[in-house]
Amino acid sequence: MSSVDLVLVLRYRKAVTYGFHVLLGALEEHETTTSYEVVLAETPEATTTAIEAGLNRAKRVLVLWSFYSPDAEALAAELTTIKAAAPGALHVAGGVHATAEPVQTLDAGWDVAAIGEGETTLLKLVDAGGDPVGVTGLAYRDAAGKVVKTGRPERLPLDTFRGFSLRWHRFNALEITRGCAFSCRFCQTPFMFSARFRHRSVENVRWHVDEMRARGLRDVRFITPTALSYGSQDESPNLDAVEELLATCKEGIGPDGRVFFGSFPSEIRPEHVTREALQLVKKYCSNNNIIVGAQSGSDRVLDAAKRGHGVEEVMRAARLGVEEGFRINVDMIFGMPGEDQADVDASLNLAKELADLGARIHAHTFMPLPGTPWRDAPPGDVDPETIRAVDRLSQQGALYGHWQRQREHAARLAAAAEAYPRPGRSRTLLPIHSTPE
Ligand code: SF4
């Protein structure tokens, strides 16, 4: 068996494939003197096997993990099992949770936390033969146990790296925008990727679409924080840029192909929904549904969350969408910080009005996510009467989502935040309606 400098084992889970595909896309174009192999491990058992095999033929084995905050605890348990079964590898955690809570991540058992966007960090790690010391974008403990942070890697234009991997045949919805100029207080996106938009150029998107078509792939979907912000540098949509994007994608994927925009896995802000925008979607795209972010039925809560739109815009967007023949899915979050009974009632009323219009509610429970201004807010709680009302909507088929499970995630995240207090922050001192930074 030939030996290599480095084996990269990707703990490849369905929930995080996209992040890994982007890393693989960056890796496949990178020239390095390090000889390396990549193994995709889809289960804990496969990860253990890959580590053992890797240690037999490589100087170093890096196991790359990526996860969201709600999954951190479960994956820490998995990590413990894998480390016990196959010691000797270096476990590197990336993603938004590791970025926001590097010390928590190290304390949970990972050897290294990757901070910020992973592409350049991975390439430098590979160049260094897998040795993390001094590589920008990492946090780890030195020999004395002191946490060393090497700073955030540079945020590069989106065109710098491929959005999926040709070499490893890993395709996914294409990321067309990273970062978000809106700064909703419950959201990790602006923290992770900055509070400004970086858009993939139309030419670069077209290259990806052409490559997909050449491989027989027919569906083009997009990853973006707010679909109609494509091409914009501020809070208003740029419909010319959106049309250019959709037209070239439609042309590129060909007559048998389909383009989806403003539907899974992205959404549209309600104030961006206009008849003109919807007609663009109808002209170029195959989706018969759109997802609109509403989050609350209370203007007071929307203000506190810095959403930048009100309830009226949500209803207007839903009515317009229905008039233009779309099925409407509306994202809502229950248990937002500082909600009182009037706010809860307003959200339930909005949900019912939307359901009467034929919309479906995608329900979430508020989670105090690391890195966000509301990291130290109390976990989302939903009172029994609200649960019954939400359940009724669910039984009618008007509501779906993992909001019940998210109540448990929220409680766990709050406990973790309490165990790792931020200097000067305290849950009991958090003035929800004056909303701190
Ligand atoms: S919730 Fe959406 S619009 Fe608000 S900051 Fe996050 S990505 Fe941007």
UniProtKB/TrEMBL annotation:
Keyword Metal-binding: yes
Segments forming domain Radical SAM core: 166-405
Domain of life: Bacteria
One term of GO molecular function: catalytic activity
Pfam families: Radical_SAM
Cofactor(s) the protein needs: [4Fe-4S] cluster
Protein name: B12-binding domain-containing radical SAM protein
